[in-house]
Amino acid sequence: MTSSRTIHIEPLTREAYAPFGQVIEIAGAHHYPINGGMTERYQDLARVELGGVHARPLVSIARGQPYELPLTLTMVERHPLGSQAFYPLSQRPFLSIVAPDEGGVPGLPRAFLAAPGQGINMAMNTWHAVLTPLEETSDFLIVDRGGDGNNLEEYFFDEPYLVVLHD
User: Fold this and answer.
1) Per residue in 127-149, is it b (16+ CB within 10 Å) or e — as a string?
2) Residue 65 to residues 106, 107, 126, 155, Cα–Cα distance (Å)
3) Which distant-in-sequence residues (6+ apart) come within 8 Å of 38 by Cβ?
């Protein structure tokens, strides 16, 4: 029997992820040649959002330890002053677990499985789980916000969710 606290992982698509941000991928992106035709530039793949005092973009690399499925989801967080992009530096899978805002608290979470070549950019103030690589330790390029102000809010669920790949 499936619990109402079970989240089924779904494929990461632009349409499904749109309420939470953008999928970063070259498929379907505006592109053009540069460097004398030796390089193809894929332009404007995500919307970087920066708010608050002395905001500036940060470019970082994170090395995440892998999670196993099923995954128990106990907490989500959000960043009220900036977007947060994650692009894998390998072809390994990862999850993006996000939730809509419902009156200042997270609503029902959704879990998306990124295909090789896909990254995500979570819009400013989007509830999300922590970085969730699968299978092996994985590195990610991160673009997010630095600057003054509190840019982190955490929410702990009274009852955890179980994130599963299949019924």
Assistant:
1) bbbebbbbeeebebebbbbebee
2) 25, 27, 23, 22
3) none
Does the reported pTM lie above 0.85? yes
Interval 69-109: pLDDT, tens: 999 999 999 999 999 999 999 999 999 999 999 999 999 99
155 exposure class (CB count in 10 Å sphere: 0-12, 13-18, 19+): middle
Pairing of β 132-133 and β 110-113: unpaired
Distances (CA, A) of 44 to 4, 47, 96: 38, 7, 21
Instruction: Tell me the pLDDT tens digit for each residue of 3-34.
Output: 569 999 999 999 999 999 999 999 999 999 99
Answer whether 41's CB lies under 8 Å from 34's CB.
Answer: yes
User: What span, in angstroms and rounded, lies between the C-alpha atoms of 111 and 123?
Assistant: 16
> How is residue 2 written in tokens?
């499936």
